[in-house]
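Project outcomes to date are best conveyed with an example. Our students and postdoctoral researchers have been running inverse folding experiments weekly, and each run begins with a structure described purely in tokens. The record below, which covers 138 residues, was selected by the lab manager from last quarter's runs and is presented without edits.
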């Protein structure tokens, strides 16, 4: 996975692939994902990243951005601030193969989640499963 992402480019530009317009009868999530793929990745909000990552869209470019956000917000959460579980949940529930393919990014995420305290009961099992599934040495 690329560690440096050109935030001014869309996923379509980064991947070099334009998805066709979704069928008219598709869900609003599918229409929205298609729309977000056309926006510069640097303009995507955390909740938008969470939805895209949760759909396994653009992982090579979006996961580094998401891990960066999680890493930046972890110290404030550990100090008693509010922490939004949606992005964390989306990231830690990606398949173990994703993390095995990019051990450096996995290490960064591991460091970020190790700072988190008082995680909700909804995301704690997924964080624990992510940590347990990491290859040795990560």
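After processing, the design step wrote out the following sequence:
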């Amino acid at each position: 996975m690329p560690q440096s992402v050109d935030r001014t480019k869309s996923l379509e530009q980064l991947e070099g692939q334009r998805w066709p317009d979704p069928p008219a009868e598709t869900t609003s999530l599918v229409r929205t994902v298609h729309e977000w793929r056309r926006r510069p990745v640097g303009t995507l909000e955390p909740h938008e990243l969470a939805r895209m990552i949760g759909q396994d869209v653009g992982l090579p470019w979006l996961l580094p951005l998401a891990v960066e956000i999680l890493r930046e917000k972890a110290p404030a959460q550990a100090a008693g601030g509010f922490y939004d579980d949606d992005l964390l949940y989306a990231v830690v529930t990606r398949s173990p193969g994703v993390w095995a393919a990019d051990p450096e990014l996995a290490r960064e995420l591991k460091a970020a989640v190790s700072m988190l305290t008082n995680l909700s009961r909804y995301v704690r099992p997924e964080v624990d499963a992510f940590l347990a599934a990491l290859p040795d040495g990560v």
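The chain has a mean pLDDT of 90. The radius of gyration is 15 Å. The training component of this project remains on track.
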